[in-house]
Amino acid sequence: LDEESLLCGPEASRVEDYRDEMIRERRAPGRVLNNCSGKHTGFLMLARHLKAGPNYIATDHPVQVAVRAAFVEVTGAASPGFGIDGCSAPNFATTVHGLARAMARFATAVDGTDARQSAMVRLREAMMRHPGLVSGRIASCNDLMSAAPGKITAKTGAEGVYVAILPEQKIGIALKADDGAKRAATAAIAALLVRAGVVEADNPMIAAWLAQPVPNRAGTVTGHVRAAPGLMA
Hints:
The structure is a single chain. The protein has about 230 residues and is of the alpha+beta class. It has helices at about 15-25, 35-50, 60-75, 95-110, 115-130, 130-135, 140-145, 180-195, 205-210; strands at about 80-85, 90, 155, 160-165, 170-175, 210-215, 220-225. The strands form three sheets. Strands 3-4-5 form a three-stranded antiparallel sheet. The chain has a two-stranded antiparallel ribbon with strand order 1-2. Helix 3 (about 60-75) packs across helix 4 (about 95-110) and helix 8 (about 180-195) crosses helix 9 (about 205-210).
């Protein structure tokens, strides 16, 4: 397969130095650089395994049928519908409660119990071993997981969604900021991880997200995005 097999659409690199280099060299954005290209590579791999056609983002394609079945299984509720993501893949709908329930199932999964639980364990452990590959080394996900190695799996999502898996506590967390912005979501998830006892509030990688400075164009800090005090109680 080649890059054209990815149906996520092209994107410029989100790593500033590399993006600037691409601009200087007049290189066009690419599908491999799309921040969802890893997920789409997984779709392609599943399509090959299922001996299915190339249009893996169609909702009736065997890949998406399998994805929806797994989604319903782990959330524990039927999905009422879907929306099309920025990377063209269907996003099946659930409640925040359903999303948290899915994360709890990842947290409580035991290797060797069955195929699903073994896969859940492999996924959460791979994320904890390589936090920089989850959302990039400069993202909040990397900091949250690096603050407590082997204890947290954390992943930001679109529209103010954030999830976390805490295997030792057997807890799953899901939240969504009403305004769809990640600034509130990152502060809230950091506070909830402190509340769960897996990180310390004074850890520099956590403190930076609990009180995110808001600078103006001149670099003056005009305020902070802070988690509400009750979230850490």
